[in-house]
Design a protein that fits this description.
By secondary structure, the protein is mainly α. It contains 6 helices and no strands.
Length: 155
């Protein structure tokens, strides 16, 4: 293979890597919105008829560590609050933790389903990578950096 063909292939490869890197914030946003929708939908169903939700936790789920009322309230609260945080990208890594815990409890105590593994992968990606550049976390972090940088220059 001629050297010019190799250089051309390498150039295209580098260009593709730059393109994929530029798409990373969009993909993290999509991942956050997809998983937020899953948990928000579940939380909204639970809050529609909370009495039925408590009965479900008592009779069907039989939560192993908490009384059904506390488990139902906690699950509903975390599904609603954490999904909203993930959607806007605020405290995203922290917001993944209760949802990962809930996913693990569901998977190992109630319903073994491959779908839960996909949820865990998405949440794990957000936990390890952060919310990305299209998030409140990113904008707050940049604001703080600029504010601190400005104070350093004034000193």
């Amino acid at each position: 293979m001629p050297k010019s063909a190799i250089n051309c292939a390498v150039s295209y490869y580098i260009l593709l890597l730059k393109l994929f890197s530029a798409l990373s914030p969009v993909m993290l946003l999509v991942a956050r919105l997809v998983i937020a929708k899953v948990f928000l939908s579940s939380g909204l169903v639970k809050i529609e008829d909370f009495g039925s939700t408590v009965a479900l936790f008592r009779d069907e789920y039989k939560t192993p560590f908490l009384p059904p009322e506390i488990a139902a309230f906690s699950a509903t609260f975390f599904e609603l609050a954490c999904s909203c945080l993930l959607a806007i990208g605020l405290a995203s890594r922290l917001a993944t933790l209760p949802l990962l815990g809930m996913t693990a409890v569901i998977q190992f105590t109630y319903d073994q389903n491959v779908q839960h593994l996909f949820w865990a992968v998405i949440l794990g990606m957000i936990l390890t990578q952060g919310a990305g550049r299209l998030s409140a976390d990113y904008f707050i972090g940049n604001y703080q950096k600029e504010k601190n940088h400005g104070q350093t220059q004034l000193s």
